Amino acid sequence: MAGGADPHDGEDVGGGVATSAGSVRATVWGGDVAGDGDRLRRRWSFDADPDGYHAARPGYPSAVLERLRDVCGLAEGRRVLEIGPGTGQATNELLGAGAQVVAVELGSHLAGYLRARFQGRPLTVIEADFDTVTPAEAGFDLAVAATSLHWLDLAVALPKIGRALLPGAWLAAWWTVYRDADPERETPFRRSLEAVFRRHRLGRGGGGMPGALDHDAWLAEFAGAGMFDDVRVEDIRWSVPFDSRGLTALFATFTEVTDLPEAERAALLGDIATLVDVEFGGEVVENYVTVLYLARRKAG
């Protein structure tokens, strides 16, 4: 999450890329992420309320875990490096598969949440910024970044991840596109929701593709790091039903919403709840896409 990065949206919302070279610009809610100072502030924002974040965020589609098992070799006893675990949504799956996990988490509250949640499990939590820390360990069988990699300086992070992996081991990075949902399965609710966002001056700005779905840009980043081969991408489509309480709780975790003044934030969330309850009968189905990138560490 917020850890070595966030655990979510790319921002969880759309996923963007922040690089020192600026070769790929981050697109979060349709706009560019500001400078490094703002990026770090946004990363820290996820540390404020781990319980609320964990309760509001959906998990990941089962296909992600299947790929980790079938392609990346996730199994009992495997050593996994996790970057930006947040509240441990992916961590829980890794531990459930029998892995031994070393997780790098930026936020102190999130780090404490992880230690308490998984007490007695084979999890080591390193409270640090992945951009600046040098993990003491290497020789990992798998590296995982669940909705977090976009918060990092990729020119630093990707080579560092590569050096931490065994030759032939995999990096798995994924994002769920929440803010823009699935652009190929737009719904009447989503069209109405966009009108609400525009009314609150949170429209998509210049538009464009959510960052996580910019396959060519991300594939180029992985290839350009010089550490990986067999780089691949898969879009995993799934749906989640929400009532008004669940959907407003989800949107309340996004930094574009938490950044609003309290009165504006309450008004936005109230309008979303009214839209669900009054115009759509109290429940909506959101169509999401989780974008999974896999990159294999070069054997040489």
From TrEMBL:
<keyword id="KW-0808">Transferase</keyword>
<dbReference type="InterPro" id="IPR020598">
    <property type="entry name" value="rRNA_Ade_methylase_Trfase_N"/>
</dbReference>
<feature type="domain" description="Ribosomal RNA adenine methylase transferase N-terminal">
    <location>
        <begin position="64"/>
        <end position="201"/>
    </location>
</feature>
<dbReference type="InterPro" id="IPR013216">
    <property type="entry name" value="Methyltransf_11"/>
</dbReference>
<dbReference type="GO" id="GO:0000179">
    <property type="term" value="F:rRNA (adenine-N6,N6-)-dimethyltransferase activity"/>
</dbReference>
<keyword id="KW-0489">Methyltransferase</keyword>
<protein>
    <submittedName>
        <fullName>Class I SAM-dependent methyltransferase</fullName>
    </submittedName>
</protein>
<dbReference type="InterPro" id="IPR029063">
    <property type="entry name" value="SAM-dependent_MTases_sf"/>
</dbReference>
<comment type="similarity">
    <text>Belongs to the methyltransferase superfamily.</text>
</comment>
<dbReference type="Pfam" id="PF08241">
    <property type="entry name" value="Methyltransf_11"/>
</dbReference>
<dbReference type="InterPro" id="IPR051052">
    <property type="entry name" value="Diverse_substrate_MTase"/>
</dbReference>
<keyword id="KW-0949">S-adenosyl-L-methionine</keyword>
